[in-house]
Amino acid sequence: MSFETIRPQDINGNVFDLIGNQWMLVTAGDSNGYNTMTASWGGMGVMWGKDVAVTVIRPQRYTMEFVKKNDLFTLSFYDQQYKPALGICGSKSGRDIDKAKETGLTPVFQEGTTYFEQAKLVLVCRKLYDSPMDPSNLLDEAVDEKWYPDKDYHRMFVGEIVKVLRKAE
């Protein structure tokens, strides 16, 4: 199967469902080295006159190293049959296992980054913004208490969506 290029405005589906319920893989790196992780937090919209996607990564995640050192990252989305694979990518570290081998996902090294052949939708993003979340800016104490008991605050990345690939039918 191949992919077709579409505009960000032509993405089908509800982004709340895509990210929050179906999950996504955040991937960075290339054929010389990459890592991927599952995420269910993020967003899409318009900032600075550009179509953007936002993702957040905790500092201990191996994928953080790859997102930090590369200009590009991908957010990819999958049909429900791949939910177990995404579960592995979210619970096991690429420091310890080969996630592609463990899940059966096939990496595609194109566009200067990495995504997976099984994806139904891929956003290729160029980093525009990179900042650690500052807990002093959390206005709701319950958020800090519930989501950050270990004080491992996410780092936020905003990426310009430079290409959208949709599985060709």
TrEMBL record:
Pfam families tied to this protein: Flavin_Reduct
InterPro entries: Flavin_Rdtase-like_dom, Flavoredoxin, Split_barrel_FMN-bd
Residue ranges constituting the Flavin reductase like domain according to the UniProt record: 21-164
GO molecular function: FMN binding; oxidoreductase activity, acting on the CH-NH group of donors, NAD or NADP as acceptor
Record-linked Gene3D superfamilies: Electron Transport, Fmn-binding Protein, Chain A (2.30.110.10)
SUPFAM superfamilies hit by this protein: FMN-binding split barrel
PANTHER family: FLAVOREDOXIN-RELATED-RELATED (PTHR43567), HYPOTHETICAL CYTOSOLIC PROTEIN (PTHR43567:SF5)
Family: Belongs to the flavoredoxin family.
Name of protein: Flavin reductase
Species of origin: Solibaculum mannosilyticum
